[in-house]
Structures are given as structure tokens and as C-alpha cells.
Amino acid sequence: MTDGRYPTALAAPSQQDPQAIQAAIDWVHGQLKPGQQVLVWTPNRPALMEHPDLVVFARAHTSMTQKTRSNVRWSGGPMLAGWPDTDALDELAEDRRVSALCVIPHGTLDEVAAWAARTGAVRLGTAGSLPEVATLDPVVERGLEALTGMVNHANNLAGALDKRDAVNVLMTLHHGGYPLDSAAVHSWVLAHGWPARGARRLREMCDKLAAGRTLRAGAPSILGRDVLQQWQQSATLR
Hints:
Blueprint: E1 8-10, H1 20-31, E2 39-42, H2 45-49, H3 52-60, E3 62-65, E4 77-82, H4 86-93, E5 98-104, H5 113-119, E6 122-123, H6 138-150, H7 160-175, H8 182-191, H9 196-210, H10 227-236
């Protein structure tokens, strides 16, 4: 599934391809439209300063790091994100000012694979094929669809009732014997409109289940006793 909100591109890991940064710069420059500003993002300033070509490009435009993000004024346009982790990339990708996004990954494509697959990112230079992202059982998808319609996404699963619903949906699926791959769940909910922070909290819940920990809802479930059977029946009809 691709979200198609704006063009996206994935460069090769810069450690593997010396031309990766220039390929990313060229692509971002090609996406720039009148009245827009290019933004170069890196996790910290040392990461930027290690790459002279990127330093020159950043100085000609606007740059920021994870720490300075809230202090940098940027009116919007194409973004070049250098070496973001999964959480940083998710938050950058949902910024409404972004009109195009190119990512330079770390040494492997693992952290950006779900994002690249979800957005249909163009591969630049020697960027190879993406690692496979685990798929979800259709019954799990029906459960996540139900949860998507239940929670207030503005709360990012921080509210007591939203947490209750998330825990109860996940526990229902878990007790039913359905695997909850955290990366696949995370990718699915992002593709279905969840904000980055809420998706991250749901992924963390799945990680806890995978580690053998128990999730506590803090309030009685509002799910019907036969809800799993309903999801199973719905899954067979699609």
C-alpha cells in the first residue's frame, strides 16, 4: 500500500555508496518549487559535518537536527532526511509542511523498509531491493480496523479509554493465537492514518506481548464476547 501524499525517494546507505548523498541532493533539488524551502534534517550536527557535500547543501538552504527541530523556522517544501531512525522518520513524514521527502538510511535498509514500501519510495542510485516486511493475518487486520475506529487519534493512545481499547484488542488477538509482529502492526496503522506517536505506543505494546509480558487495560473491555469470531468471519469474506 502506498499513501501517495507526496513524492518520496530512498538513497543507498551512504556507507556503501559514495554517490548516495549527491543522488539525494539532486533528487530533492528537482522537487523544489517556487516559494518553497529545502530542509536538511540530521539526527545531530556531527552527523551532518561528516559529509562536506551535505554541509554545503544545508548551508545553502535550511537545516535542523532532532534537538533544534522546534527552533528552526521552515515554511515548507522538500526535505532531505539523513540517517533517521524509525521513530524520527515517522514524525518527519507526517509533517504537513513536507512536499517531498528523500531519506539517506543507515548501513542497512531495515529501519526505513516499512516507510519506503508504504510510500512507494523511488530507489536512487544503488539502493537495492527492500527487506521483506512481515504481513499480518487478515483477522489481525480486522481487529486493527476496529481499533482504528474506536480510539481518538489526537490522544496518541495516552488516554485511559484509548489505552483500554488498544490493550483489549491486542489481548483478544493474542489469546486467539494470532501473531502480532510489532513492525508489521506499526506499518499497518501508519498506513491507515495513525499519527506517529500513537503508532509507536501500539508497537511498544506488541513488543511487550512478544516478550511475554502482560498488558493491563485498567478498565473493563467494551468488546463483545464474540468479537474474535466476528473478525474471523469478516476476514473470510474479503
